[in-house]
Structure to design on (366 residues):
């Protein structure tokens, strides 16, 4: 029987019938192992080589146990066992040493492959940014915080008392009709989605004695027909200042300061008489057109002015709902649409663009 691997034959077939012949066979195997170990390189080839010698089923050491040790006559078993143990010790020592070298080489190669080449151009990564509405919010808040106002927030689901009655809006006012206001079904007490952030004026004055200087940012909801400039939901910042010596001049100076800070030092301000249930006197605040500078263009409808927001001195009747003395206190309030201000300042033509999540649009305002 001729075979490539002598360990697949018995020692009797190989002519090893005495201890000296057994020692020669094991010496030849040791030499064969050393030659193959010296020739083998690379992690994959080395793993295959290790299996070929130490594998449980097809490894050379397994063949020796099955073909040499088991069928050997009793007189040779001791010699075969001793030689087999020496061979195992030798193989384990060589495998351990060379495995460490191959693993180290493999780690070095992997490190070289993953090494960062600083000379290569960097990968451009898209970074997130604040939405235009959030940017405008923060800009407005910064202006008022810088002159002593603080920020408060409140619930978006309100009661008619805080949304209407405590703000001097009577029961049969058109704004309270369900054609203008979203009412919430299913609650024991009548609830609604707030139509402005003004309820927090009343809530704050109930809890805090004067002086009060707050702004109230948040979402508000109204039954408007969606179009280029209107929507069911929009953002608003309400402001309130109450103290013992606040006059209409303070109100006018605050408004002018805000307009200059928001639109630039060249902006001019105009107040027009108006009416709001919770302010008296009331005014619409206009600013000179930021596009044409007041000379007249399509943006300002050739008037030179753009309407910004409504404001006025707090109606003394509102103080009665919060226990303030209207004979000693005075103040002003204002409410501005953040969406409208963002559209005006940054030249956005249609309100839906702010909410469509079109990346091409959003990337214009990093």
């Amino acid at each position: 029987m001729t075979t490539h691997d002598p360990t697949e034959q018995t020692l009797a077939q190989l002519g090893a019938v005495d201890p000296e012949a057994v020692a020669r066979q094991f010496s030849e195997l040791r030499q064969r192992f050393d030659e193959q170990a010296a020739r083998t390189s690379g992690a994959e080839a080395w793993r295959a080589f290790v299996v070929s010698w130490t594998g449980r089923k097809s490894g050379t050491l397994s063949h020796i146990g099955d073909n040499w040790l088991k069928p050997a006559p009793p007189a040779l078993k001791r010699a075969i066992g001793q030689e087999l143990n020496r061979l195992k010790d030798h193989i384990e020592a060589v495998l351990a040493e060379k495995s460490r070298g191959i693993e180290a080489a493999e780690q070095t190669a992997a490190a070289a492959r993953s090494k960062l080449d600083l000379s290569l151009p960097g990968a451009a990564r898209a970074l997130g940014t604040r939405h235009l509405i959030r940017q405008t919010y923060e800009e407005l808040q910064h202006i008022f915080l810088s002159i002593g106002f603080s920020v408060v927030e409140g619930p978006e689901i309100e009661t008619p008392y805080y949304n209407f009655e405590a703000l001097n809006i009577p029961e049969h006012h058109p704004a309270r009709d369900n054609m203008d206001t979203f009412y919430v079904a299913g609650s024991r007490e009548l609830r609604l989605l707030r139509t402005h952030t003004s309820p927090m004026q009343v809530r704050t004055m109930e809890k805090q004695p004067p002086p009060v200087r707050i702004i109230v940012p948040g979402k508000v909801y109204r039954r408007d027909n969606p179009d280029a400039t209107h929507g069911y939901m929009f953002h608003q910042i309400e402001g309130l200042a109450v103290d013992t010596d606040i006059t209409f001049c303070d109100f006018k100076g605050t408004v002018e300061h805000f307009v200059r800070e928001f639109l630039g030092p060249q902006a001019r301000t105009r107040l027009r008489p108006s009416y709001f249930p919770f302010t008296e006197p009331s005014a619409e605040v206009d600013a000179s057109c930021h596009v044409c500078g007041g000379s007249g263009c399509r943006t300002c409808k050739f008037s030179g002015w753009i309407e910004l927001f409504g404001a006025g001195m707090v109606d003394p009747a509102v103080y009665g709902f919060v226990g303030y003395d209207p004979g000693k206190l005075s103040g002003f309030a204002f409410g501005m649409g953040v969406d409208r201000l963002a559209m005006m300042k940054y030249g956005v033509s249609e309100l839906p663009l702010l909410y469509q999540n079109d990346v091409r649009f959003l990337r214009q305002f990093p």
The first strand starts at residue 150 and ends at 151. DSSP finds twelve helices and ten strands in the chain. Strands lie at 150-151, 157-158, 183-184, 191-193, 212-221, 233-243, 269-276, 279-288, 305-314, 330-337.
